[in-house]
């Protein structure tokens, strides 16, 4: 009896350990695969033509700059929409809404977060882009701005739920301390609660941006997919093509092992590195905040 | 002696039905330390939080009765709550310094009121820190984060923050519950100074502290005011059996 128990203990522990290690292994394998397929690009295409503004793979123009700027423009636009809107919603849910409202809003926001992006893209094509074309008097409604609006919508639930958690974990005593000094609700939010939850809110923003930059389906459907270098603010209202959309659209038609194929993987690497940087920044902010919290509590 | 606060038949029930007040009536004198004591769950903190309407922000199911401060019913929905909270300051059990420097903590309330003159602010910082018996300890480090101070120092900074607003009434909810005896002594000494200028209402963290500090004492048990009277008399010669049992340590 004793022996079989300790055996079971051993096996279960090892199984859990193995599943933990496998997560690391998979990430490492993916990264390795990306490197193996993407790095040959550097010997097949010279850096100058890679950093060119012309993406026309059929005639061997592999300038990835328009794709990078395309992604940046769309993501930046999405962040400009998602950050104020998301933080505002989080503040409303956590600080202002009465309890019954909070109990309706929270699951609703999470439901929105679970909406498949292809559904949003569908709505974008059918409703949003014709509306924008008429409303803003554009030659086409399939623009970076359309993508930003939808991506913003996709990032909002992420921002809301993480920021709301952060605000919620601010000790109630902070708020009461401010109220007891005669602070109004808004003064308390702006000068006490939000600064106290700063790191969590920053994480929310980072995760939201990360979600937006990696999003594929929606942007592919609504941004028009024209690989044009974004140079000014005006580019926001013309069609662009993002890195993710390029990979998704072209990977199916490319010859295995060709230069074009390698370049697509190279774009994947760039994307991987960008989201890695965003995540590292986000988690280092969280780490700092944790250390501070420990100091306060000790 | 003037009655600063008159509480008339105050009852209150939280929406989860836990703690409540039942028909509490009492008068609180100006320029004295009034102590509200009794076992946990007796309604002391609830009463304190009624006096500055901090209970507005918790889920309260029902409340009735009146609280008159200087003759005005502060439970009236038309009361200016922000002005009330400036007049009735509060110090909490756990010192809650806000995430900013010591100086910023103290002038926070004044800044909210729109005071910008540096001379006024500096004057308020010095005056209130001296009143809280902490000026000498920290006068050279006012720009350091308040969180770096010890618990006892933080609590006195919180007291100073309240005093900077020049309230008329100071509420203290177990202000020394987390403090060592030396810090506790300093806070209690500050209270004796305070009552010269303010009306002080204290929920102590022990019967001993109640006995040490009380000019007037009120004993609360499960939401009811059992006995209220002169501090010395109540602790040496209580009229009610329940008060005597609690003061003697037979329950609690």
Name its key features.
heterodimer, A: 298 residues, mainly alpha, MetI-like fold, two-stranded antiparallel sheet, 13 helices, 1% strand, globular, B: 252 residues, alpha/beta, six-stranded mixed β-sheet, four-stranded antiparallel β-sheet, 10 helices, 36% helix
Oligomerization status of the protein chains: heterodimer
- CATH class of chain A reads Mainly Alpha
| Tally of alpha and pi helices of chain B | 10
Regions of chain B with pLDDT < 50 over 5+ consecutive residues?
none
Helices of chain A, by number, come to: 13
Question: What is the H/E string of chain B?
Answer: EEEHEEHEHHHHEHEHEEHH
| Largest beta sheet: strand ordering of chain B | 6-7-8-3-9-10
The helix-strand sequence of chain A is: HHHEEHHHHHHHHHH
Q: Briefly note the CATH topology name of chain A.
A: MetI-like fold
The major pleated sheet of chain B works out as:
6 strands, mixed
Largest sheet of chain A: 2 strands, antiparallel
The CATH architecture of chain A can be named as Orthogonal Bundle
Give the domain tally of chain A. Answer: 1
Verbal overview:
The complex is a heterodimer of chains A (298) and B (252). Chain A is mostly helical. Chain A has one domain (36-297): MetI-like (MetI-like fold). Chain A has 13 helices and two strands, in the order H-H-H-E-E-H-H-H-H-H-H-H-H-H-H. A two-stranded antiparallel sheet of chain A has the order 1-2. The longest helix of chain A is centred in the C-terminal third of the chain and has 39 residues, at 259-297. Chain A is globular and about 70 Å long. In chain A, 39% of the residues are buried. Chain B is an alpha/beta fold. Chain B has helices at 44-51, 81-87, 102-112, 118-131, 135-138, 151-163, 181-194, 207-213, 231-236, 241-247; strands at 3-14, 20-29, 33-37, 60-69, 72-73, 88-91, 169-173, 199-203, 216-221, 224-230. Chain B has a six-stranded mixed sheet with strand order 6-7-8-3-9-10, with helices on both faces. Chain B has a four-stranded antiparallel sheet with strand order 2-1-4-5, with helices on one face. Chain B is globular. The two termini of chain B are 33 Å apart. Chains A and B meet through helix 8 and helix 9 of A and helix 2, helix 3 and helix 6 of B.
